[in-house]
Amino acid sequence: MSAGLLILIKFTLLSGIVLMYVALGGCFSEHSGVINIALEGVMVIGGLFGILTVCCIPKNLPSFLIVTISILVAMISGMIYSSLLAFASINLKADQTIGGTALNILATAIALVVVKHYNSTITTNNAQSPKLNYDNSLFIFNVGPFTLNVFIILGIVLLVLSYFVLYKTRFGLHLRACGEHPQAADSVGINVYKMRWAGVLISGALAGIGGMAYIVPSVQEWNFEVGVGGMGFLALAVMIFGKWNPGYIFLGSLFFAVFKSLANIYDSTFLASFHLTKEIYNMMPFIASLVVLMFTSKNSKAPKAEGIPYDKGMR
């Protein structure tokens, strides 16, 4: 197997797992009846506070403890930030698309302010730069001749767990009922408001981990001005392509991740012979998503009540 193919497989797996995390988050939210357009912003917030934890936590702690704490912080940060969308869309019955868009814009602004403040409190030659330096080797471990990223292992576990929760538990049945016919769910004693809150919070937790999974393996210094490169929006396309089913979402994530990976390593593959700029290759996954959704969106079966605020007084 050639070195170029091995690199492509490695990058595809990493990018695919990131997309899967976030798409699974969107899946839980939409199954509850709430469209989470804010996935991009939640990724930024989760990645921001997860990396800040890695930077600030005492370095004399065991590596596995640093990794565990930072991932938990990313998850909780995503949940807290997504609760803003939950409150606006569930309690205040605000437009979910507008609320999610506002949170996407706000997330980058929050990240820039927090990172610049952090840099100004430590000794640095570039205090005003919106960047964080961190040790990404903490998240990589060796298994024989192979190196594995902790986010890949965690992603596989969460994929299996997500499928089990959605289709094999009473909670999952209630959640899906609230996204299909909330009035019917309410009539049998299911609290629609609580289930939708649960869906959005789970969505925030997964997207928060996804944000950290996107940022940490990439480099050892991250500029928050660039955000997460549209991965949250691409994850929404993966979710639709995957028919809101965790298994199909995983396969769809790998499909789109191939295009994302080619954009990162095009100069070491046959694509280099075309002499195109990197920006063109960066467009490939989004062009692919448009083409795929053009042919598949007609047959997609979204939860019937998604995006519709629930009013207990309506029947």
Automatic annotation (TrEMBL):
<feature type="transmembrane region" description="Helical">
    <location>
        <begin position="100"/>
        <end position="118"/>
    </location>
</feature>
<dbReference type="Pfam" id="PF02653">
    <property type="entry name" value="BPD_transp_2"/>
</dbReference>
<feature type="transmembrane region" description="Helical">
    <location>
        <begin position="64"/>
        <end position="88"/>
    </location>
</feature>
<feature type="transmembrane region" description="Helical">
    <location>
        <begin position="34"/>
        <end position="52"/>
    </location>
</feature>
<feature type="transmembrane region" description="Helical">
    <location>
        <begin position="197"/>
        <end position="216"/>
    </location>
</feature>
<protein>
    <submittedName>
        <fullName>Simple sugar transport system permease protein</fullName>
    </submittedName>
</protein>
<dbReference type="GO" id="GO:0022857">
    <property type="term" value="F:transmembrane transporter activity"/>
</dbReference>
<feature type="transmembrane region" description="Helical">
    <location>
        <begin position="280"/>
        <end position="296"/>
    </location>
</feature>
<keyword id="KW-0812">Transmembrane</keyword>
<feature type="transmembrane region" description="Helical">
    <location>
        <begin position="248"/>
        <end position="268"/>
    </location>
</feature>
<feature type="transmembrane region" description="Helical">
    <location>
        <begin position="138"/>
        <end position="166"/>
    </location>
</feature>
<keyword id="KW-1133">Transmembrane helix</keyword>
<keyword id="KW-0472">Membrane</keyword>
<keyword id="KW-0762">Sugar transport</keyword>
<feature type="transmembrane region" description="Helical">
    <location>
        <begin position="6"/>
        <end position="27"/>
    </location>
</feature>
<dbReference type="InterPro" id="IPR001851">
    <property type="entry name" value="ABC_transp_permease"/>
</dbReference>
<keyword id="KW-1003">Cell membrane</keyword>
<feature type="transmembrane region" description="Helical">
    <location>
        <begin position="222"/>
        <end position="241"/>
    </location>
</feature>
<keyword id="KW-0813">Transport</keyword>
<dbReference type="GO" id="GO:0005886">
    <property type="term" value="C:plasma membrane"/>
</dbReference>
